[in-house]
Design brief:
With 747 residues, this protein is of the alpha/beta class. The protein is built from 23 helices and 14 strands. Helix 9 packs across helix 10 and helix 16 crosses helix 17. The protein is globular and about 80 Å long. The two termini are 36 Å apart. The structure holds 4-O-methyl-beta-D-glucopyranuronic acid. The site of 4-O-methyl-beta-D-glucopyranuronic acid (GCW) has 11 residues, from loops.
């Protein structure tokens, strides 16, 4: 019934679109504007990077006026066609015909198996398709019955959708239609968003309104916005989404919620996206359907099997489970003295008959035994070493359909972290990179911080595993032992009209998706293409916008946590500076635990005389990090506790160097703000003003960070401020007294 209604709706929609363009087939239809549409027309940001603004007349010259498909139709092909129609109509200002015979200049969509007869380049196209797998695509100019046409070809439907989006992207970037030639396939088969969305629609670490998923109204009411969500993700090649928070509730596996997830899955399916759920370890026990949650108990395993069968009856292409176990209060197999592999494999066996997977998170803390020992006066384990200690010994012990999901760094989504040591240490396990797109520790949606550079830095980190070049990207791709992993991004998407809370946070979703597709893309190139589509393909906008983006994350590092400092943020909400906090329940939640600043110096010694976790890196990397002289200065205090008088490569000693970084961070925000002001003539008032206000607030908060941290480090070091340094605006007591009980994002 639902399908029939959906079809009816689609037919009505198509009818409506065609009636908007009554001259659909008239070749004489006049362009609606002879110059590019007013770039200053207000935008509320809903269209993201899929704006399809009219191109300059010259750029429209060769744009097809007809979209033709070969072979059997499918919902995915319909989606591709609808997007091409929308995109081309937007960029040309002219109606676009669907179907009928190909004419000169048409765009032709065809699976490799359905290449139209009359195609002059059939063999060449077949050859080119062979290495492109089930998700890749190619776009080329070919000849069909002697006429030049643009062919979008792929081995499977979803490739045609991805190819359509890729081609539209090129056109939006100003590439002439007859000049586009593309061939691409992703290296990672798993490219997913992780929503930390709760069933009551709050979002843990969400800064863009409520959850996009209206769980309450689903499945009866399906928000059309889910289709636009799917379009945006498919435009980047994101092929899965975990709907709910890793701090999961048992109820998500109730029949009611499965039906809700199924309704979302129905919308996402044509766009190549699968739905996954986060599950709570103790679900069967909490639902009182088993007596224990011990993974080795046959009743427990049988329960999960039944549950998997039930899910697949409703969602036949269900992706699988994401699990946070034995971390931050979440139950897990360790509660029963079983290890992570025993836990993960039990779930994996329930999903395996349905080809589902388990993404088991490696974000863990000290085990219960270690915590007990620490309480009794034993050593407090370095949190940066915990995941490795618990997971590395399990390498090779996970079932084939288990992937271990590792955060980019060993602590927690800090403005900068060295790559997680596990990436170089689990050759026999497929690993999933977990990036955080939502900026929990980087100023929420208020601060402009482009994460393309952060993602790129981690993906390019050379683990030197096996004593050879082995970047994190290669590790994910299975270059060590063929264990191909994936990439996940903690979503920054919510119900706010512009999706992400700010215009520039859209770029972080975009950059994540583009790098998920191709880990070798360049952060600056991504920033540029995002800016072209989001604002205009005009150098006067794109150059300064890309420049602002490229310097933005370093600015945040400088005014929050320079030189390898980390986790200095306010307790709980993580808003603003709180380096003085040292009274939390767990030692390793305290900022003071991480910076260790005192009269003797600052920084965390992770070398042989300290926590010794440096040795978790491959020998070559470990050697480099073991010596402050060879440690890159951006990681200096991550790995070393150094005296304030330590001589930096700049010639300054550590104390004035630290202050210089804080100052530079604030100056950078001021510079970003000034560049943005110069963009006023080129950006619509709505997005311009909103961004300007956010930058002004970021400037104030950067100053606050700088002042509070300098006041505090001066206090604990007992050092005077160097002569030319401006004193903090307020007293340390003032900064310490600030409270933010209503900061957003606590779920
Ligand atoms: O960084 C911490 C966050 C928690 C989050 C946790 C995790 C979902 O502060 O909000 O919980 O990481 O990644 O599990």
């Amino acid at each position: 019934m639902q399908r029939i209604l959906a079809r009816l709706y689609a037919a009505l929609l198509l009818g409506a679109m065609l009636s908007t363009f009554p001259a659909a087939h008239a070749a004489t239809a006049a362009p609606i504007a002879s110059t590019p549409a007013d770039p200053l027309a207000d935008s509320d940001g809903y269209d993201l990077w899929l704006r399809y603004r009219p191109l300059p007349v010259a750029g429209r010259a060769h744009l097809p006026a007809a979209v033709v498909t070969a072979g059997a139709d499918s919902p995915t092909l319909q989606a591709a066609r609808a997007e091409l129609q929308r995109g081309l109509a937007g960029m040309t200002g002219k109606p676009v015909a669907i179907g009928g015979g190909a004419r000169a200049g048409s765009v032709v969509l065809a699976r490799g198996a359905d290449l139209p007869s009359g195609l002059a380049e059939t063999n060449a196209v077949r050859d080119a398709l062979r290495p492109l797998g089930s998700e890749g695509y190619l776009v080329r100019r070919v000849h069909l019955n002697g006429m030049p046409v643009t062919l979008i070809a792929a081995n499977a439907d979803v490739g045609l959708l991805y190819g359509s989006f890729a081609w539209l992207r090129q056109l939006q970037l100003g590439t002439a239609a007859d000049g586009v030639a593309l061939a691409s396939r992703p290296q990672l088969p798993l490219r997913v968003l992780n929503h930390w969305d709760n069933l009551d629609r709050t979002v843990e670490r969400g800064y863009a309104g409520e959850s996009i998923w209206n769980f309450w109204e689903l499945p009866g009411v399906v928000d059309p916005r889910y289709t636009d969500y799917a379009r945006a993700n498919a435009s980047l090649g994101i092929n899965g989404t975990v709907l709910n928070n890793v701090n999961a509730k048992a109820e998500v596996l109730s029949a009611d919620f499965i039906a809700k997830a199924a309704a979302v899955a129905d919308v996402l399916r044509p766009y190549g996206m699968r739905v996954y759920l986060s599950v709570r370890w103790s679900t069967p026990l909490e639902l009182k359907e088993t007596k224990t949650a011990d993974p080795l108990d046959p009743d427990v395993a049988a329960w999960w099997k039944r549950k998997a069968d039930e899910i697949y009856k409703t969602i036949p292409d269900f992706g699988g489970f994401l699990v946070k176990a034995n971390s931050e209060g979440q139950p897990g197999p360790q509660d029963y003295h079983r290890n992570h592999a025993e836990g993960a494999n039990m779930l994996a066996r329930a999903l395996a008959p349905h080809h589902g997977i388990v993404m088991w998170r490696a974000f863990v803390y000290a085990s219960p035994d270690e915590v007990k020992a620490a309480k009794a006066g034993g050593p407090v384990h370095d949190r940066a070493g915990q995941a490795y200690e618990q997971f590395q010994p399990l390498d090779g012990k996970f079932d084939d359909n288990v992937l271990v999901q590792v955060k980019n760094g060993a602590i927690d989504f800090q403005p900068r972290e060295p790559a997680h040591p596990l990436f170089g240490a689990m050759p026999k396990t497929p690993l999933v990179m977990e990036f955080q797109i939502t900026k929990e520790y980087l100023g929420y949606a208020m601060h402009l911080a482009y994460l393309g550079t952060l993602f790129e830095e981690t993906l390019r980190f050379d683990t030197r595993a096996g004593n050879r070049d082995m970047t994190v990207a290669q590790v994910l791709e299975g270059a060590q032992a063929g264990k191909v992993g994936g990439i996940a991004g903690v979503a920054n998407i919510g119900s706010s009209r512009n999706w992400t809370g700010s215009t520039f946070d859209q770029a972080n979703w975009y950059a994540f998706g583009r790098l998920a597709w191709d880990q070798r893309l360049d952060a600056r190139a991504i920033a540029r293409e995002w800016a072209m589509q989001t604002f205009a393909p005009d150098a006067r906008v794109v150059d300064p916008v890309a420049d602002i983006m490229m310097r933005s994350r370093e600015a945040v590092v400088d005014y929050m946590t320079p030189l390898g400092l980390h986790h200095l943020m306010g307790t709980g909400h993580h808003h603003g500076p709180a380096p003085w906090v040292n009274n939390l329940e767990r030692a390793d939640w305290n900022p003071a635990y991480y910076h260790r600043a005192g009269p003797d110096g600052i920084g965390f010694d992770r070398g042989a005389k300290g926590s010794d976790v440096i040795k978790q890196y491959a020998p070559e990397v470990a050697r480099r990090f073991a010596d402050p002289a060879t440690t890159p200065s951006e990681f200096l205090l991550w790995f070393h506790h150094l005296p304030w008088t330590y001589k930096m490569p700049s010639g300054r000693t550590l104390w004035p160097e630290l202050i210089a970084h804080y100052d530079r961070g604030v100056d950078e925000v001021a510079a970003m703000e000034a560049s943005w002001q110069r963009l006023r003539p080129f950006v619509d008032a709505r997005r311009f003003d909103d961004t300007a206000r956010r930058l002004a607030q970021q400037h104030r908060e950067a100053q606050w960070w700088r002042d509070a941290c300098i006041a505090y480090f001066q206090h604990v070091s007992g050092l005077p401020l160097p002569a030319d340094v401006r004193a903090p605006a307020q007293s340390l007591q003032y900064y310490e007294s600030l409270r933010f009980p209503y900061a957003p994002g606590r779920g």
